[in-house]
Amino acid sequence: MKAIYRILGLAGVVAAFAASSSAAQIQGVLMDKMCSADAVKKGQKFAMAHDTKCALEAPCQKSGYGVFTADNKFLALDAAGNAKAVAALKTTKKTDNLQVTVEGDVQGDTIKVSSLKLQ
Question: Is 112 domain-assigned?
Fold first, then answer.
């Protein structure tokens, strides 16, 4: 009987982990974490006006990056995603309205990035 409870407990843990992690394609505005707090308060108009120059400033780079979504939520990028974000920001000709598509596994409020593309 104890073996059955152990198996059921293990199955529950596996199911909970599977539910908390899912592959996704996220679209929104690429921005740094420092500025995301203002975007959450001020909305999409503020996020779209956030510019490349600000995003590449040292404190902003150090804070990391994420995607500000249409429903006014901020999903942080993992370390690999941060590196891809910096590379994209350094090569883009866009000055603001940094629309981005990110693919990867969403784990809570973080994206484990497999690809990132500025539009």
Answer: yes
